[in-house]
Amino acid sequence: MLILRQLARHRFLRSTHIAALVDRSVDRANDRLCRLFHAGFVDRPRAQLDYYPASGSAPMVYALGDLGAELLAERGIECGHLELSRRNRNAGRPFIEHQLEIIDFRISLDRVVRQRDDISVIHSDELVSEFPKQTCSMRNPFTMRVGVSHNGRTQEIGLVPDLTFGIRFADSSRRCFMVEIDRGTMPIMRADLMQTSVARKMQAYLAAHSAKKHESQFGWKAFRVLIVTNDRSRARSMKEALRRLSEARSIGPTLFLFALRDELRASGPIAYDWEDGAGRRTRLA
Q1: Does the model's pTM come out above 0.85?
Q2: Is 194 helix (H, G, I), strand (E, B) or coil?
């Protein structure tokens, strides 16, 4: 049941992710997953078959299947989706890879924090439990509706972070973070800021901060946005785009913290020297 719960929560997981989340060895997790797959409770998305065409040793990716969802529903755990197996078959490689990188970040965060006794992770479900009542009633409590202005036009857009978490310190204080995993596929700037771009997303976060959405919707005093990208050149271009946004003049350089994916994997989110929009280095804890 624990494996099915984790798949219901995260949608796609590698076998190595599942082993870490349920605190079992990879061999034991693989054995259990194989049994669940052949019984029809979990799926292996087809799109992963072209992940590593030259390698047969990449960890298998799993998703919750229809029978698994039915079993959870019988135990009072609603998964929120119908025809999961069909949705798993239709899921494309970019979407799956993005979801896997989100869980990579979370598991790395959990692993590092478990080694320390002065801080703890506040996961999204615990954060939601402390939200104002009107926010808790939303389908996705982390969705923010904000107005983004450009050339005299204002467009309302929905902003949903890839991951949200907090860090609690020994004195009971906390810091809250929203994470954006950038895979290098979205344009950084576009002539029309109303089109999807990294700059548009940063402007939306700036607008949310200016409107104090974090206070009214979440009850937070402050938050920061962590952007994980794939190379130094792209990170520089993001910071340059941030400097061009007029709304960024006051809070922009400190609202966003940037990291390079490979370096972050080597050190973990807590020990990593994040760099803000002004080039200053800082750590999360």
Answers
A1: yes
A2: coil
